[in-house]
Amino acid sequence: MRTAILISALLGLAAAVPRPQDAPNWDAVDNADPVEATGPAEGAVNEPVTYDEESESEEAAQDTYESLSNPNSKNKIKRGVNDDCAPQPDGYGPKPTPDTVPAFLAYPPFASTARNAPTPHGYTLNFVDLNASSNAKTYLGLYTFDSYDTQKCAEKCDAVNVCTGFNIYFERDPTLKPAAACPNPESFTNIKCTLWGANVTTATAVNQGQWRRNFQVVIRGSNGYSKPNPPNPFPGYTGPTFFPCAINAPLLNGVNTYIGQKYFNGPFDAGKCAAACNTTTAYDHRHPDGSGNYDACNFFNAYLLTKNGIPDGTACSLYTIPWGRQYATNCEQYRGSDHYTIDNSYGYSLNPPDPGHV
Predict the structure, then answer these.
(1) DSSP per-residue codes, 162-191
(2) Which of 79, 86, 265, 331 is the most exposed, fewest CB within 10 Å of its CB?
(3) pTM of the prediction?
């Protein structure tokens, strides 16, 4: 049982001392479940968004409970299918001639289409006409269009609550799945729209294609767009309250109000933090100390952790009392040569607060 603190302590004054918490908590970051995908699967032309906030929050609650009680590893087995040389879904984009990588990369309509594409209302154009697409842990899904339609891609993003940005581009793909019997099939052009649960920036545009047997996949006309997307309010909480950085709380009259941190790879989703906070309080309520006190999670700080400019996952710092904007001073940290920064930082306060006593 961690040391409990009563809400009545809010009446006292916080003395500024060295921070009692690590944010980010590297153990939490290192032990978070890995994401299943950081971009479209090889050869994929349609991967509808399956991200469901309610089920993700339920999984976050279960994960939090397991980390508090009895952590277990999770193993998944994926079975393969033999579909060598199978026809691939036909692309709708223009096909340059001759059918070579240099011809594809030099095809003028790709550049002119990307550079003249309208920016949808509410979005910011972060990069234009790159030869690379986004790749990050915050991948949500993929759609293939019959035209380079930024508005349609924005509408796909707007339909997903946690979607913050999209990437649209031309991709040179094989007409058959490359295999020993067809190592370098003819190509066609797919127009792809990918959705992301964090900002799409030049830092995420690192996928320049790949080799599939002797066939080279390459990308042209890649545009990236992002929009402001504050998280939802949650039942029982006051918020969200925007913070410029992560909370760096001092001791309160010599008592640590920091409970701990949960970390979730993938799209930024403050709902997972609400689930972690609720689950922590429920667990601690069932395990009070000898005086009947327990650590009630009355405040959490949810933020997006980025690594070298690339969105990484959702951090959830849990506290027994609320902390204000003046304590949001943890903006960046270095871990070796890696530079971690804080984005999309929001605070939520339980209302009414839990007294932390049985």
Answers:
(1) T--EEEEEEEEEESB--BTTBSS--EEEEE
(2) 79
(3) 0.83
Q: How far is CA 13 from CA 7, 16, 283, 326, in A?
A: 13, 10, 29, 14
Record the tokens describing residue 84, joined without a space: 């060598």
- Rg of the chain taking only CA atoms, in angstroms: 24
Residue 263 to residue 169: CA distance in whole angstroms: 31
Token pair recorded at residue 314: 């959702």
Q: Where are the beta strands (DSSP E) in the chain?
A: 124-130, 133-134, 139-145, 165-174, 187-196, 205-207, 210-212, 215-217, 219-226, 237-243, 258-265, 299-307, 310-319, 332-335, 338-350
Cα angle 196-60-9, degrees, rounded to a multiple of 5:
110
pLDDT digits (tens, 9 = 90+) for 248-285: 999 999 999 999 999 999 999 999 999 999 999 999 99
Would residue 254 be called left, alpha or beta, if left means φ above 0 and alpha means ψ between -120 and 50 degrees?
left
In this structure, which amino acid lies at residue 40? P
Whether residue 240 has a cis bond before it, omega within 30° of 0:
yes
